[in-house]
């Protein structure tokens, strides 16, 4: 059985949501980052970066939210959280899966800290560009791959929910509201919220 290491009010919400979407049994291991539990030697053996979420699957350890999404989606193909290899939608799925940590998270940090970074040197371009690109992609909706919900929606939906609805760091847009409504209407999202709330 997989073990998910998580902490409330963190990016590990994506791990909870992901595991709830699979419909598979899993063990939740509360790792309270407010007490430094992520810096113990035991946890650092699972994720040397000392961050949540992290996942153990037998002898396999994996960290980073998007990598966990990719691993679990491929591990449980019956959950239909990823287009199979050979499906033309898989390319966009992978692009959006990694758009969260490579573009959305840096854009949120840029907004939060008000750091000015030249768009020519910032790997994410600019916060405005990131959210304009996402806005355009979500116009077609309801999910990033149209009617198909995928693990990429867990990564992007978690990040947007965090930035817009929970911490109000990013202004919302009509496409974001529609998207977040579609994500939060999913029973697995609602179960994950109940778990995270304690």
UniProtKB/TrEMBL annotation:
- For this entry, the protein name equals Glutathione S-transferase family protein
PROSITE patterns tied to this protein: GST_CTER, GST_NTER
Positions of the GST N-terminal domain:
1-80
* Example of a GO MF term: transferase activity
What is a single Pfam family found in this protein's UniProt entry? GST_N
**Domain of life of the source:** Bacteria
Q: Which residues does the UniProt record annotate as the domain GST C-terminal?
A: 86-198
Q: Which InterPro entries match?
A: Glutathione-S-Trfase_C-like (IPR010987), Glutathione-S-Trfase_C_sf (IPR036282), Glutathione_S-Trfase (IPR040079), Glutathione_S-Trfase_N (IPR004045), Thioredoxin-like_sf (IPR036249)
């Amino acid at each position: 059985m997989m073990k998910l290491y998580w902490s409330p009010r963190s990016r590990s919400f994506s791990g909870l949501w992901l595991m709830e979407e699979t419909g598979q049994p899993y063990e939740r291991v509360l790792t309270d980052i407010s007490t430094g539990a992520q810096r113990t030697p035991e946890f650092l053996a699972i994720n040397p970066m000392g961050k949540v979420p992290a996942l153990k699957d037998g002898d396999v350890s994996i960290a980073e939210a998007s990598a966990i999404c990719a691993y679990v989606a491929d591990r449980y193909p019956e959950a239909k959280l990823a287009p199979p290899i050979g499906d033309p939608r898989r390319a966009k799925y992978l692009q959006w899966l990694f758009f969260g940590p490579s573009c959305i998270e840096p854009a949120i940090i840029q907004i939060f800290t008000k750091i000015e970074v030249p768009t020519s040197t910032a790997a994410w371009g600019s916060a405005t560009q990131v959210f304009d690109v996402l806005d355009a992609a979500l116009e077609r909706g309801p999910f990033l791959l149209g009617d198909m919900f995928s693990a990429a929606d867990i990564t992007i939906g978690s990040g947007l929910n965090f930035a817009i609805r929970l911490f109000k760091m990013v202004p919302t847009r009509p496409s974001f509201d529609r998207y977040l409504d579609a994500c939060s209407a999913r029973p697995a999202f609602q179960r994950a919220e109940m778990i995270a709330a304690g």
